[in-house]
Amino acid sequence: MQQFLYIRSDIFPRSFYCVIKFEHKHAKLRNIHSVVSLTIAKEVEPKEGVAAFRKTGAVTMKKQIGPGSTVASDRQSGAKPTCLIVASAATEGVSAQSFLNAFNQGSSVFNLQVATPGGKPIDFVDVNEGNSRWIQDFQLKPYASPAKLESIDGARYHALLIPNCPGAMSDLANSGSLARILQHFATEKKPMCAIGHGVAALCCATDENRSWLFQGYSLTGPSVYELVRRPDFASLPVIVEDFVKDSGATFSASEPDAMHVVLDRHLVTGQNDNSTLPAIHNLIFLCSSRK
Description:
Blueprint (H helix, E strand, L loop, with lengths): L13 H13 L5 H6 L8 H11 L25 E5 L7 E2 H12 L3 E6 L7 E2 L6 H8 L7 E2 L10 E4 L13 H13 L3 E4 L22 E2 L4 H4 L12 H7 L3 E2 L9 E4 L2 E4 L5 H14 L2
Parallel strand pairs: 1-3, 1-6, 2-4, 3-5, 6-7, 7-11, 8-9
Antiparallel strand pairs: 10-11
Helix pairs in contact: 1-3, 4-9
Protein name: Glutamine amidotransferase-like class 1 domain-containing protein 1
Organism: Pleurodeles waltl
Main location: other
């Protein structure tokens, strides 16, 4: 399950390794989310990490990130790279938890810009007690108003992120504007990441001969076994698994709701909501490797 984690010695300081080694030795961390949270850790002396861990008994280096907040980079100074978050504006909406995780994790590394078709507001779905307060706070922020996808110049961005958007099957999957942006990213080999139903957005990138931009790639996304549980399964406009296979790419999936991420060249795809954090973790590493 951890084949998509990469630790690079030229990215993280020595003391960061000390904290990881200590926690693996004494805490025996096995959970992928614990490892992912360490990617936004600040540099500390090994003794500080040991003392803090003994005091709390938890992952001590994690910094809580809120909408629009920033974290100073320990790798190098300078402006953050820019990342475009493309979301659906359809009534089927955007997964609240996937967007929350994407924005929180991404804001630690990127300057983020959200865009939707027509610049329409995002309709969040699957809002629960755990994420409702964050969503309410986010919607009050000035940067919560999306830019028009049709006006986006892909050359201005270093990375592209599409969270889990059930609505993507209705609007993004047929978006000529997104197809233009994806073509630019693919040509320049810029990092891209699509998660869950957001993978359906990649289906728009076909030419006049119906040749798909991602032909020959390996991807994941919602499996048929996950989709068949939906009451509207028979009327879904696109089945990602079928589209990928029919378009000359390779599709893989784990069991329903399992964490599963595929990295192929500059494209990262995640199977579902639960794959959001590790997928973004890979996107961050791809951007780091381009510096």
